[in-house]
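Handout, page 2. Input:
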Amino acid sequence: MKTLVVVGAGGHGLVCADLAERAAIFDRIVFSDAAFERGTRAGRWIVEFHDEDLRSLSPNTYEFVLGVGQVGTGHNRETIFNRIVESGLAPATLIATNASVAQNSTNGIGTLIGFMSTVNIGSTIGTNVIVNTRGVIEHDAVIGDHVHISTGAIINGGVTVGHRCLIGSSATVLQGVSICADTIIGAGAVVTRDICSPGTYVGVPARKIHD
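Output:
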């Protein structure tokens, strides 16, 4: 019997649980979140654990997915993810049943491919990545670790996105562009050329507004 522990019972955590339930690859789905009392209901599921409980769980029985969302760079998600891995639990990779994922794409551990998303041929997605609802990763793109591709964002062919980046909702990154680590691309922005300096970029074409 395999149980999925969703770490974080907020909105993104509920999305993770719903996606996993629809995929029907786990016997049970529970939450871990110290902000809630054990036994509290979160959607259709129960908060069964707090983070300090995770070290006592058998890796033969439990896997986890990080249900913590991202509104800036992915440093916080990276820290939490690594801490849980060090506790001995293995990260699960979740792919929505209605996502389109090419067979020869590569999806890293702990990654979530959301509802109606597309991951095309030859692309590589790193560890603990969120590809949110209707996100598009085109052919031969490379997505680093702990990245969040927000709802409706489009990563075109041959793009490279560095570790811990956030690509905002409905943003577009044009073909062949590289984005350095720890960069935030605002919602609706269009990235037309390489970004080599971390910071926040907005607009069409995207321009840096602060570090």
